[in-house]
From TrEMBL:
It comes from the Eukaryota. Gene3D superfamilies: P-loop containing nucleotide triphosphate hydrolases. InterPro entries: DTB_synth_BioD, P-loop_NTPase. PANTHER family: DETHIOBIOTIN SYNTHETASE. GO terms for molecular function: ATP binding; dethiobiotin synthase activity; magnesium ion binding. SUPFAM superfamilies: P-loop containing nucleoside triphosphate hydrolases. It holds the Pfam family AAA_26. NCBIfam families: bioD. One of its GO terms (biological process) is biotin biosynthetic process. This is Probable Dethiobiotin synthetase.
Amino acid sequence: MLKTVIFVTGTDTDIGKTFVSNLLVHKWKANYWKPVQTGVESDEGDTTTIQTNKLTNWDPTLFIPRYSLQKPLSPYQAMEFEPDTQIELNDFILPKFLDNTPLVVEGAGGVFVPITKKLEITTDLIKHLIKTNPEKNIKIVIVARSGLGTLNHTLLTQEHLQNAGLKNHLLGCIVNGTPNKGNVDCLRKFGVNVIAEIPKCVTNEETNIALEGIPSLESLL
């Protein structure tokens, strides 16, 4: 069986990618990797967030980012403040995991966020990982907000990925925020595979309900 890698991207910034990634890590008993982390001058970083917010008894392996940049900007813009840093797509090699444990990879921002000085974007990183890891089953999960604006952002994100030749790698979309049946129904009518709806979680009980609402990875594959 091919080892499964789930690349988590978003339709916007502060969309809840790290929270959803953490849910997937614990629901699917997966490991975690953030290839590029920005904003470390003012934030602990998403890997630390995953490490300190344990949702179950699962103890994931957390792989360190390939790049950690100081400014809370896109990697392309953050590199302007660190001229000695030169990100290249070939620098990104999936961490080695020896068993069949899935790996959740959390991207920086959305699919069109520029990563390199050649203006290569998140989509190019996904395609690079697919090309260099033919022995792995790489799937994409889109995290979208539930409220106003999500139809345009989500449909554009999905269309972009499909046009980039990644249709067969789309696993589905997770809608995050106050439940909005109208938006979810509309997304489905446009062909978006909404695999879960995650309400705002404040208490442990709410988080446990959210975990239960995520289908098993096997059922989606």
